[in-house]
Structure formats: structure tokens, C-alpha cells
Amino acid sequence: MSTAPQPTTPAPDPAAAAVGDREPILQVAGLVKHFPLTQGIVLKKQVGAVRAVDGVSFDLYPGETLGVVGESGCGKSTLAKLMTHLERPTAGRIIFKGEDITALSGRALKAVRRNIQMVFQDPYTSLNPRMTVGDIVGEPYDIHPEVAPKGDRRRRVQELLDVVGLNPEYVNRYPHQFSGGQRQRIGIARGLALRPEVIVADEPVSALDVSVQAQVINLMARLQDEFGLAYVFIAHDLSIVRHISDRVAVMYLGKIVEIGPDAAIYEHPTHPYTQALLSAVPLPDPEARESREGRIVLAGDVPSPADPPSGCRFRTRCWKAREQCALEEPPLAVPPSFRGTASPAEHPSACHFAEEKQVVPPA
To answer: Per the CATH hierarchy, to which homologous superfamily does domain 14-338 belong?
Structure first.
């Protein structure tokens, strides 16, 4: 039977220096979520576990956006559910404004949830088709009536619709009467209803057309400035994350493999997985396309999170892999030769050979 590992805290992220002396509003420390695998119908026996999130740590600061990127199945959505208490962690801690909220329940959890809201991926399924827009956006007030008295709710809802760029008179319409982009604006309005300090956005634009994606991202950026929000923006598309994130964390098979300021990640990636993801991002500038070293096509498939490789989880697809990679799990830390150099490469990377300059796999 698989047991949860004892998580280790990675080295401090120099990227956090960009926020100055501010205290983090949200801290995730050694977060683990394992889903048990069982056999049998009546007498179920656990035979293993899916390691969806396996020792994730990061800080989120007031007013900043942390982008979380990675392939489907890497644990991004599970991480979002853990931060919003839609799932309980197997191990690790979630700290909000200095308070450990990991094990909260009842009224204490209800109070915290008011300040940490979620915007869901699919605007077509996250809105109840039987409810009007006014009821959907105003539903949080049923759970937290102290925020808006009943006589004031319609006005509050109309204000929220106006804030997200919708006609306030649409309160009596139903979700099917709106486009995908408008539905996502309704979801954002619902997330703003309680005036949260943190919003976890799980692939909020992946179901939308490209032109609509830009509109929603611009809206979220404007709302962040207006309300002082901190975002955890989850996506699989690095080109989308770049437009809104201050820092970027790259996930692979339940772990963060690289984290740093957006400019450092996009211009000086040190982990092979990040380099491979960036090589697949389309470049509109012909000169930039010419100067790029080449597309990195990874060999093999993503291993099963129920049976991840020993040592480095990326080693089975990595062109830098050596014997050490199978024997030792690389820590998420700044590579030794980059420490104290003020170089863009001075950010944590979980690779034994992050300092090697070889980017494109040998022919």
C-alpha cells in the first residue's frame, strides 16, 4: 500500500524578491494529494495510489499573478481544488495570511472560503442552466448573507455585471442566452461577489476562441488592478500565461520542476521540460522563429502518476538523463553556479544538470 511521502520544503525562490518585503498572502507547503487505487467490489483493498500532487510548495503575494502550467494530467486542477478546499490534502499545509487553514471545517472554513474563490474552466457546465444570471451571481450572498442584505442584492449583482462588461439588465436571462465569453464573464462576476483577496482560475480561457481569450485575460488583468486581487492562473498554454503572470511555476507529474519570474522562465529556462514546452509555442515574429534553436519533440509518453519513475520523474523523456537521474530526485533549487549572480537563470529548477547549456536534443 502506498503511503504519503514526507514532503521537503524547496529552497527559497529568489523570484519572490521582486515583491519586496511584503508577506505572502497564501503559502502552499509540501502539498500532497494521493487518490487510492483499490481492488475488489465488497472487500476493497488498496493496491496503490495516484500521486496527483506530490510535494508542491510556493508562495503567492498580494496583487501578483502566479501562472501554473503543464500538460494535462500533471496535477494542476487537483492543486486548484486543494487550494480552494474542494479536496482535502493527503499531507502538507495551506497557509492564508499566516493562518494554517489545511484542517479547517465548519464556520472557520466558510470564513476562509469567502476570501479564496475559484473561476472554473468550462463556462458551459459551471453555470446552472435552470438559474438566471442574477441568481447565479448572487448565490454567494445566500451563503454569506452578511456581505449583502437581501434588499441590496439586485443592485450588487447589477454592479458586478457592469464591472465584468455585461449589461446590468441581463439579470433575468439564462446562461444559454449568452456566448462562451459572456458566460465566463458571469463566472468571474460570481467569483468577485464576496470581494475575495485570492482567485484561483483553473484554465479559465481554454474553452474559448482565441479572440475571446484575449478579452477575458484583459478583463482579469483590469479587475486585478481595480480590486487588488492575487491570482493563481492555471493553464496548459504557455503563451496565454505569459500575458498575465508575474511568476510562472511549471508542473510535471505532480511536482513543480521550475519556478521563477516570467521573463526568466520564458527567456532563460533551465529545466529540459520547460525548454520543450517553450519550443512548441508558436512565434509570430519571423526573425524570432529563425533564431530559435529548434522544436524539441519529447520521446515516449507521460508516465503514469500511479507509478512514476524513480529519481527524476522527467528522466524517461529527457535527453540529459544519466544514471544519477534514476538514483536521486533533484531538489527544486537554484543551480549552484547561478547562485548570487543576479542572472535571469538564478531561479529554482529541479534538474541535476540545469547548468548545462545544451538545449536541443542531439540528432
So the answer is: P-loop containing nucleotide triphosphate hydrolases (3.40.50.300)
